[in-house]
Specification:
The protein is an alpha/beta fold. The chain has helices at about 10-30, 45-55, 65-75, 110-120, 135-145, 155-165, 205-210, 230-235, 235-250, 250-260, 270-295; strands at about 1-5, 35-40, 60-65, 85-100, 125, 150-155, 170-175, 185-190, 220-225. It has two domains: about 1-95 and about 220-285, Bordetella uptake gene, domain 1 (D-Maltodextrin-Binding Protein, domain 2, 3-Layer(aba) Sandwich); about 95-220, 3-Layer(aba) Sandwich (D-Maltodextrin-Binding Protein, domain 2). Strands 1, 2, 3, 4, 5, 6, 7, 8 and 9 form a nine-stranded mixed beta sheet that branches.
């Protein structure tokens, strides 16, 4: 089995894949561990092309946050369609939080937005890359709040989060668990989810409980997928992958590793139908905010 990762080693996707694949491989009865193949670049198109050109035997699995698949379908319509993939399922869901530097004068999202609205300069917000899930989440907050936020793109989520930790930008919209490496250097003003799934980490208040306007729930389900051709040619293998991925998430071996990295509160299985539903809803979110995101590109 080959695990294709569309990002460089060391990020949230890489860390999570290293947690889930040993147990998943064992439950599949694989004689060897998953081979990890990092194929960063082109908004995950390189990784998707690798899977599309691999043998369609259900032995090549792409691990990716679901929003990246939606974005790729939007931006690379000539090269990629969501119909090319068959979802196996999610293994954890990472809600977005709004981070500010630890020494920021703002302790609540209301204070932050009030200051941004009255500032003589636009507040800056780091994102992992232009036209990314983080960019979409940042623009959703900017447009709903009606405050100026200047989007500053970086080469990956790690550098974007390091920028807010170092005080180089005013804020960063980040996936919660993936950003825990800067926990001690930042504070979270809000989580864009019904509740904070953890206790004793950021303890962020839900945005819709403290803001005078509604925000969409913003999260990144981290998912496994195979080629649609593999699923069509080998429906039994696809079903076995779905079954064993779900079982992995309750296996003591996996949970011990997840506990050690504070991942357990985020572990969640979304079946293939739920993954498809997420993509449908996320594409609607992109339709609402894409024009504003594209205007950002002119200033980058």
């Amino acid at each position: 089995m080959t695990a294709v990762i569309p990002f460089a080693p060391g990020g949230g996707t890489d860390r999570s894949v290293r947690l889930v694949t040993p147990t998943w491989g064992r439950l599949l009865g694989a004689s060897e561990d998953f081979l990890l193949d990092h194929k960063p670049g082109a908004g995950s198109l390189i990784a998707q092309n690798l899977m599309a050109n691999a043998p369609h035997d259900a032995h090549t699995v792409v691990f990716t946050p679901a929003p990246h698949t939606a974005w790729l379908a939007e931006l690379e319509q000539a090269s990629f369609s969501v119909d090319q993939v068959a979802w196996v399922g999610s293994y954890f869901v990472d809600p977005n939080v709004l981070l500010v530097p630890k020494d920021s004068p703002y302790d609540t999202i209301e204070q932050f937005l009030d200051a941004a609205a009255s500032s003589d300069r636009p507040f800056t917000a780091s994102v992992s890359s232009p036209l990314s899930a983080a960019h979409a989440a940042t623009v959703a907050l900017r447009e709903r709040a009606g405050v100026p936020l200047e989007v500053v793109p970086f080469d990956g989520g790690g550098p974007a989060r390091n920028a807010v930790a170092g005080g180089h930008v005013d804020c960063c919209m980040a996936p919660y668990w993936s950003a825990t490496n800067v926990l001690e250097l930042t504070k979270a003003l809000a989580i864009f989810w019904p509740e904070d799934p953890t206790q004793g980490l950021w303890d962020a208040p839900p945005a819709n409980e403290v803001l005078p306007f509604d925000m969409p729930y913003l999260s990144e389900p981290y998912c496994a997928q195979i080629s649609a051709q593999s699923a069509a040619d080998h429906p039994d293998r696809h079903a076995r992958l779905v079954e064993t991925l779900e079982a992995t998430l309750s296996d003591p071996e996996f949970l011990a590793g997840a506990d050690a990295q504070n991942l357990t509160p985020f572990v969640q299985f979304m079946d293939p139908g739920e993954c498809n539903q997420f993509i449908t809803e996320y594409l609607a979110l992109l339709a609402e905010f894409r024009a504003s995101m594209e205007r950002d590109l002119e200033n980058m």
